[in-house]
User: Fold this.
Amino acid sequence: CVSAAAMHSSLARADSDTLVWLSTCKVVLGLVAGCFVDPAAWHWEVLCVVVAVMTLILVHMALRSEEGSGALYAKVVDCSVSQDGYQLLEAKKARQDLMRSLLPETHDQDDQALHHTSKHIGKANVARLASGAYWVVTGLVLVRGFSHVRTACSDVEVVDRVLDVPLVFAKQCYPTSMGGLNGCWLAMQSVASIQTFGESPHPIPWGMIQEQLALGGVTPPSSVFPLNPLLRPELCDHPGAPHVSTGNQEVRKWAQGLQVFVINETGRANVLRGEIQRALGVTAEVVSWVNLTDPAESLLGQHEGFVMEGFFAGVVDKLHDAERTATHFKALRTGYKGEQDQVLVLEDTASLGEDFASRAAATVEATPCSWQVLSLRSELPYGECMNSFVFRVAPNLNSNAMLCHFGTNFRSVAMLYRRKHLQHIIDAVWSRSWNFATPACQSFDVALAATSRNIQYFAVPGFHLPQLVTL
Assistant:
């Protein structure tokens, strides 16, 4: 703004050549501004380049133009040439005609004067053209820039949704034996659970599950009525993981901003640490499992802020789930005190999938920039697909709040967090996970999904193959 003001203040006093080059500099400033708006929006950079080149061509033409340039550019920018300039040009033309008839020897001098005046006005007009082009570019860049700032990192809101079916399928999906529950959805959920957590786990997309059940008349065909817990399923409800082509430099940059923790649940934490070292070049920190049956450890957890104050083991229904939750809080509390931008928490039951580093970096890049939590493997996904990489997690409103909206978005084996949001995440999940009136919320993954309205929580569907994280 200071540069533009200085340039405009100089327009009134500078000569024509200076005006032209000042305007050219302003176009270059517009080009530079355009390049910094959004590096991914290459079409805006192209627009700036095209306008800048056109302006430079006009400048070149003006500085090399001969007699008649003033008239040419006066026609192009008629409204921007001063009236005084026109009067001067017309007066000199009239004077030239008179002097030619009376004193032929003055012809050459007047020709030179008229040519100088014409060329001066031509350059001034081109300066105004260049200035106008600059403001056009700047206006477009500012519109684009403010729009980018307002929309690019705005929160992605949760779409509250219950999976209802039309009346035409009421008899099929709401039999009297189900007591008003959606039997079609419960059947899909049951099949997905078997495919995911059975003896031979092989999770498959929701659309394929519905088609399988439709063959037996359990659900309507997806082509007639898609009963998909993922909105916009065409984006991510598919078995294949998206192809990535992230460069080594981008991967290294992402890995350098990581602080990694491994939760030692089964005793293979050091094995996973080796995988992380090889894949990311990062030394992971082991987080010991919180044993809530040990009074001393429970009291330490309460003091350190990863176990609810006044807790004792007899008040929970699922002690192992409560211990997992306490251990995750322990990792998050430690990560919040760190300095890295992102915190990755892995349970030692996980292993890194093939080409983990580049695929994980590409997934983070593809996630909406408002993200606060990113699960690298979520089973029975429920929410809205954002793209072919991730979906926005939403509470499963087919299950009531007393059950903690249980039934979808399972697992917490590989969780990525933005460090600056960790305190907000801890506060949001804490009140649910340590609420003993809702026992299902004692599981960390269930509590996190139930809180997804209050946090920007995204996840990778577990049926994307090859998986980022294997078990």
